[in-house]
Write a structure and sequence with these properties.
The complex is a heterodimer of chains A (about 350) and B (about 240).
Chain A: H1 4-15, E1 21-29, E2 35-44, E3 49-53, H2 60-68, E4 75-80, E5 83-84, E6 95-98, H3 110-120, H4 125-138, H5 154-166, E7 172-176, H6 184-201, E8 204-209, H7 212-218, E9 221-226, E10 229-234, H8 236-241, H9 246-251, E11 256-263, E12 266-269, E13 272-275, E14 283-289, E15 294-297, E16 305-314, E17 319-325, E18 330-335, E19 346-351, E20 357-360
Parallel strand pairs in A: 3-8, 3-9, 6-7, 7-8
Antiparallel strand pairs in A: 1-2, 1-4, 4-5, 9-10, 11-12, 11-14, 12-13, 14-20, 15-19, 16-17, 16-19, 17-18
Helix pairs in contact in A: 1-4, 3-4, 3-5, 4-5
Chain B: H1 2-5, H2 17-23, H3 32-66, H4 71-83, H5 86-103, H6 111-118, H7 120-133, H8 136-145, H9 150-161, H10 163-179, H11 182-186, H12 192-200, H13 204-237
The chains are: A alpha+beta (about 350), B mainly alpha (about 240).
């Protein structure tokens, strides 16, 4: 019997390769004028795991479907290893795709589903079956090869879909919110499995999600999209620590919006003063401060802000507490579970000296 | 009906003479219209099923996949024939058939064009429910991303998943062909129904025998469909 490691080694040795993908000024306008993609420029390097992250309607799925050939772009070029694939039909692009909704063919068994792409490529029956079984072993479902889709759980169906997408050794693996229909525990398991497989196979992967935790957990780099544009591309740490815009700062992770005044690259508020990330116009502004960059200190400590605890939530490994400052501003503080403030309790707060994003207003 | 066909005439009692008369070579001329009507109806059924399978089904798949905005208009269009009485339909079809006569002739099979229209409401509903039961858009996109061209998508992915609906639509088409009388009669075409009426005037027993056989045929078809559906369900649950 082929072990999971053997199967992975076989797939890797026989076909895995990195492919460079580039979106060059890609625009997609739907009939009626809705602009789903607005001049998207994006480079995905060979073997990279890139997540497209953004709210609903930001264009991330349209970008993925344009790369897959399931949507025709209005203008711009999509280069795959230097060749513009925009005019090519989907069935000639050699992409493997896993969909948000379950997409296994109901009339075929698990192994027949997995073989489908190989059948389209006219691979011989014997080789086809062997490769399909290897791919199923790779996702740990070799023992369910003869079942039908409706006999599998949601997580198993998505694993089969993953095996089916990988078995053809595609140039790029496209994942269109493949975890969104699964329950929380299965979602995390499959997310980690996708991450492990991608790292082992070295296949260029584009992962669409609106879940920032998912994106930050698995991707080498994350492209944050908003209104059909790419707002920022960077590693999860870069996005979190150095957001390029107020949108990225507020979308990736939690942020407190605290009114203040910008002057000479620093923002002053509530008696505190912090350096500003990037450039900011002098004047009234709102500082975006991460909850973990606010610390509890003893009430009345010199230089601290006074506030009253509104509520505190236990979240397992950490705790989040909402505090109302003297001027009425409400901030969220993320802290150790060892500290358990009670509602109505007076507390002192101090800001870490890390740079923050400041937006006008 | 079965009891009536076994009656032994005015003397009372039962026998199989009326059934035997059908295959008696001496009666060949007497029942020729009936056999001609049967063969015409078989051809009509085949052509009508062909219209449903080769024209209606691909159109519905195309509309569902590529022109989803046309799903409702197509449904309304397919419902129109059910609102038009057969007599009115014939009045409209008569001039069309006079043109058809000069191009493709007046062969009985041409009646299938009219039957292709009358069967639309029923066949459309059967196919539409099958298309609605599976996410054909996602399945076709999955197949396309795996390298299938449009023809393969339809043949290898969509049709197998709507097979029950297509089968039901085909049986309905046959049932309509075997049940329709008005259009065939008013357009002067001979099929099983017109032949039955004609023969029943001289031999009501044989007319009833063939009516019984037509019923048995319809029930057999329903049974075959039910079996096909059950086999598929069992295969799925294995």
């Amino acid at each position: 019997m082929t072990t999971m490691t053997d199967a992975m080694t076989l797939v890797t040795a026989q076909g895995a390769r990195g492919t460079r993908v580039e979106f060059r000024g890609v625009t997609k306008v739907y009939p009626g004028g809705s602009r789903a993609l607005d001049g998207v420029d994006l480079v995905i390097e060979e073997g990279e795991f890139l997540a497209l992250l953004g709210p609903s309607g930001c264009g991330k799925t349209t970008a993925l479907r344009s790369l897959a050939g399931l949507e025709a772009v209005t203008s711009g070029a999509i280069l795959v290893d230097g060749m513009d694939v925009a005019p090519m039909p989907a069935n000639q692009r050699d992409m493997g795709m896993v969909f948000q909704s379950y997409s296994l063919f109901p009339h075929l068994t698990v192994v027949e589903n997995t073989e489908f792409g190989l059948r389209m490529r006219r691979v011989g029956a014997k080789d086809r079956r062997a490769r399909a079984l290897e791919a199923l072993e790779m996702v740990g479902l070799g023992h369910l090869a003869e079942r039908y889709a409706h006999q599998l759980s949601g997580g198993q169906q998505q694993r089969v879909a993953l095996a089916r997408a990988l078995v053809t050794r595609p140039r790029v693996l496209l994942l269109d919110e493949p975890l969104s229909a699964l329950d929380a525990k299965v979602r995390v398991q499959l997310r980690d499995e996708i991450h492990r497989l991608q790292a082992s196979l070295g296949i260029t992967t584009v992962f669409v999600t609106h879940d920032q935790e998912e994106a930050l957990a698995v991707a080498d780099r994350v492209a944050v999209m908003n209104d059909g544009r790419v707002e920022q591309v960077g590693t999860p740490e870069e996005l979190y620590r150095s957001p390029a815009s107020a949108f990225v700062a507020s979308f990736v992770g939690l942020s407190n919006r605290i009114p203040g005044v910008v002057s000479a690259g620093r923002v002053a508020f509530q008696g505190a003063e912090l350096p500003v990330l990037g450039t900011a116009t002098d004047g009234a502004a709102q500082a975006l401060v991460r909850p973990e960059d606010i610390l509890f200190v003893p009430a009345g400590e010199p230089g601290s802000l006074a506030g009253v605890v509104l509520a505190s939530s236990f979240l397992g490994s950490l705790r989040r507490t909402r505090v109302q400052l003297d001027d009425g501003t409400v901030v969220t503080v993320q802290h150790d579970v060892g500290v358990a403030p009670r509602p109505g309790e007076g507390v002192g707060l101090r800001f870490r000296g890390v740079p923050v994003v400041a937006v006008a207003g | 009906m079965a009891e009536f066909t076994l009656r032994a005439g005015l003397g009372g009692g039962y026998d199989l003479n009326h059934w035997a008369d059908i295959i008696d070579p001496e009666n060949e001329r007497r029942y020729r219209a009936l056999f001609t009507g049967i063969s015409n109806s078989i051809v009509l059924a085949a052509v009508t099923v062909g219209i449903v399978v080769l024209l209606l089904v691909p159109t519905m798949i195309l509309v569902t996949l590529r022109f989803p905005r046309l799903v409702r208009p197509l449904e309304l269009l397919c419902l129109v024939p059910i609102t038009v009485p057969a007599v009115v339909l014939v009045v409209g079809l008569a001039p069309v058939y006079s043109v058809l006569a000069s191009t493709v002739g007046t062969a009985p099979w041409t009646l299938a064009f009219a039957y292709g229209i009358t069967v639309l409401p029923f066949a459309h509903r059967a196919v539409q429910s099958a298309l609605g039961a599976v996410d054909v858009v996602t399945l076709s996109e999955a197949a396309r991303s795996l390298g299938a061209g449009w023809a393969r998508v339809v043949v290898s992915v969509i049709v197998p998943n709507i097979r029950g609906g297509v089968l039901a639509a085909s049986v309905i088409a046959v049932a309509v062909v075997l049940g329709e009388y008005t259009i065939a009669s008013l357009l002067n075409r001979q099929n099983l129904q017109t032949a039955l009426v004609q023969v029943s005037k001289s031999d009501p027993y044989v007319a009833i025998i063939f009516a019984l056989l037509a019923l048995a045929f319809a029930f057999t078809m329903l049974f075959v469909i039910a079996r096909a559906g059950a086999t598929r369900t069992r295969r799925k649950r294995t």
